[in-house]
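Q: Convert this sequence to structure tokens.
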Amino acid sequence: MQGIAEAITLDGLGPARQNGANPIPRCRMGSEDGCPMPKIYKICPDWMWREAEAAGTFRGAPVDLADGFIHLSTARQLADTATKHFGGQHDLVLVAVDVGALGDALRWEPSRGGDLFPHLYRDLPLGAVASVETLPLGPEGRHLFPAGIAEQIEREAASDVTAAGWVRGSGENFVGLVGPFWARLDGDATRYGFLAERRHLNRGGRVHGGMVMTFADQALGNAALAANEDRPQVTVQLDTHFISGVKEGEFVEARCRVVRKTQALLFMAAELVVAGRVVATSAGVWKMREP
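A:
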């Protein structure tokens, strides 16, 4: 059981359709032509964006006009926005917007789940648009975001996690493939966490149970290692019960405790939670072994 403990002990749409002097590059999914990826985005039907290009400005979708502002999303918020408002829809585009070009008309206001969303209280000028990309629907009914979006989601979320006092572990081998895992000191105890990424999801769009169990094993193993003063150990039993699904972008935290300790065995238990919501419980036994 290595990694976190070490960190904590301190150690498609064709050519661009241009309007005026501000051409907007249209990128194909999977292209590597260097299209910029700003921080905020607008999803809309392709026909609606064609009209905006013809008019030289985007005035908003019907919901935007009704609410008095244009709804935008950060990279981290995109997946939920697509699922909630555009589920099953084809012929969509993803419009990337340069935050710095919007000025004071851009406001960050609480919306879905209390999260702060970018709202634009003016028309969206084409000069503020960095790129427009196709947003195809995948075979499993989920929209396929470009790789650059996934990378930006990870950067934004990791920044939030770091700001909350979590330390990134330096796992190797298998842990390095599925991690990173995080840790944070909480009094005399250490809490462990991981950030759900797209690569962790199953076909249903939720974190795969195998990933949840891997995290539980790693978190409980690190807690056991601390309790037995870093003596070598192996997992001999692990039972996990799944209670609620975990979505991409959510941070899963393991709250571990020692249930019983003998000369040879450690009995451990943990609750895995997302923002106070229990998503799984896990219990296991670790056996101390000779060096």
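The first helix runs from residue 4 to 8.
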